[in-house]
Amino acid sequence: MLDLQTVEMLEKKAKEIRISTIHEIAHLGKGHIGGAMSIVEILTYLYYHEMRINPKNPKMEGRDRFVCSKGHAGPSVYATLADKGYFPADWLLTLNKGGTNLPSHCDMTKTPGVDFTTGSLGQGASAAAGIALGQKIKGEDSYTYLIVGDGESQEGQVWEMAEFASTHKLGNLIAFTDFNRMQLDGYTKDVINMDNIDTRWLGFNWHVQRINGHDFEQLDYAVQQAKAAKDRPSMIICDTVKSRGYLPGVGVVANHSMAVSEDDEKKAVQALEGGAV
Amino acid sequence: MRDTADLANMKDAVMAAIIDLAEENKDVCMLEADLMTCLGSTGFKKKFPERFYNCGIAEANMVGVAAGLSSMGFVPFADSFGVFSSRRVYDQFFLSVNYAKQRVHLIGTDPGVVAQVNGGTHMPFEDIALMRQIPDLIILDPSDAQSCYELIRQAYESGHSSYIRAGRRGVTHRYPVGTKIELGKGIELATGKDVAIIAEGETMVNEAVKALDILKAKGIDATLVDMHTIKPLDTELVEKVAARCGRVLVCENGRYAGGLGEGIAAHLAKTNPVKMDFVCVGEKFGEVGNLAYLIKAFNLSAEDIAAKAEALAK
Predict the structure, then answer these.
(1) If we measure between CA atoms, which residue out of A36, A58, A2, A38 comes closest to residue A223?
(2) Taking the domain B10-166, which CATH number applies?
(3) By the CB < 8 Å criterion, does B95 face chain A?
(4) How far is it, in rounded angstroms, from Cα A168 to Cα A157?
(5) I need a surface site. Which of A20, A38, A192, A212 has the fewest CB within 10 A?
(6) CATH number belonging to domain B187-313
(7) For B71, which residue in chain A has the nearest alpha carbon?
(8) Are the beta carbons of B64 and A134 separated by less than 8 Å?
(9) Does the model's pTM come out above 0.95?
């Protein structure tokens, strides 16, 4: 269980990551803000409390690994990695610019700390299963953490991975669904309904929990429960708000990728600093 | 160096190479998609159960898992029928493996007409063209057991990913153990001056060897190259035989568009434009039949090769 001090530290970090993410995207003028903002607490919990990592040695043997299969959430992943010291913070202002090490979608060949390249939805899920399997073959006591989107879970490959990971009892694979109920074209319920997501994962024999994905105490409880379920992979379905912390995007269908002006940036940062979220 | 002379099937040569590599290298592992008994990877499973995983009928996930394993330091071999190893998993192999600079060896069995009685649904004519689009990928189509064995080992040593075309049942024994077989270097089987025949893969090299006899009877002295490595292309040898003969015929068990023939033509267009022709599959889908029927149906026979070579040589 997290103590109050830790929760306060994580909340402070989450706010900083949100502000950095807004700066990154505003500097470019537009970007995938919605899905980047909805996973900030998951990233913060993993990188500041849970994962065995060493930013000074990003490829440390035996480390825990993280795959953001919804690769378009790169901006908040980068904000987290920069704050952890994987690379200089001024790289953040190069997002998506020619020659950058921080491309729109996560790229392990460019960005220190990115454990796998993603961007074609569904593919990161299988890679994460392969990584978890590799950890098992090597006899490591490490974990692989994976985030998939709810829209992304419309991809068949996610379910190919689901049956593989449970068959091979990948108890060291702990996945999160960023259940923000939105995708590029609108609400998932209007595109492809994902509302029975819990029973789908249960049907594939995963250990399944459902939590508020913006609540650190719930994240901590769920991850510890997932680690205790050693005989099967875990899915933690996180109810989240797409664009959380960037108010102009909340509840807006176009928030998958949208313009962020200097004025938007200033107001959003002021709101976050003033205690919004 | 292992002698493959006693092996009865191409699949045995493939598996001998992978199993020997696995004996020598702890990083070698193998992934299957419910075709374990087809390629004969059962032997690998028995020897190295901790490094063998059957992914079931889910090829896209298999390639993704292979990519993840590669990022953990393993060197996975994965296989399926060529249609699935190419068309079905193209984006996974392109992005999760190659774009991500991971190292996976993907075997596509039953290339082109070799799919035979599995028919048109299982007949990859376009896999060469698809795989040629992937930067730094090695593409192999060995013409016999010994070269298959040697080239798979060299693909592993290269540090690159590869796509390997290979038949399963029966095999040609062309090269005795000890023959110099080098990835990326075609083998000259005949060094005539009238026309250069460049063939890829067991089916086409076998037909081309038969075509040499037909041509010889007509007084035509042909060069024959076994171009077992489709990528990287042995441009030095292509230029050499084009300069020698001034006429080049490319024979491939696959479709013209994007294939080896187009690759050679594009290279010669820049360096030494010569008269060319192609024995290959055109605007056609595959169909069912035995190998002898299909070779004739798709105009890939020794007679087809000889006729085109003769026309070029005139």
Answers:
(1) A2
(2) 3.40.50.970
(3) yes
(4) 16
(5) A192
(6) 3.40.50.920
(7) A131
(8) no
(9) yes
